From TrEMBL:
The gene is speF_1. It comes from the Bacteria. Residues 6-82 form the Orn/Lys/Arg decarboxylase N-terminal domain. GO terms for molecular function: carboxy-lyase activity. Transmembrane segments: none annotated. It comes from Escherichia coli. This is Ornithine decarboxylase.
Length: 84
């Protein structure tokens, strides 16, 4: 997902973070199914988590109450995703 968002903050891969001084976390659906959302919830930090989907992926309903939103990475939404 590098290059998907513009931000003034440093972007760090989830496997390289200790979730300290984090404004928000963006996960892939694969990250979620591999347990990353559970790991983030276990910290108790209350960090907003978003899921970025690709190729018409669907986020299972069971995850929706635990996340702040979903970004769909597709050409029709590209301008919205990278707007500054």
């Amino acid at each position: 997902m590098p290059g998907l968002f513009t931000t003034q903050r440093e972007c760090i891969y989830i496997n390289e973070s200790r979730n300290i001084d984090v404004a928000a976390i963006v996960l892939s659906l694969n990250d979620v199914t591999c347990g990353k959302l559970d790991e983030i919830d276990a910290t108790g930090y209350g960090i907003p988590v978003f899921i970025a989907t690709e190729n018409q992926e669907r986020v299972p309903a069971e995850y929706l109450p635990r996340i702040s939103g979903v970004f769909e990475n597709c050409e029709s939404r590209r301008e919205f995703m990278v707007a500054s």
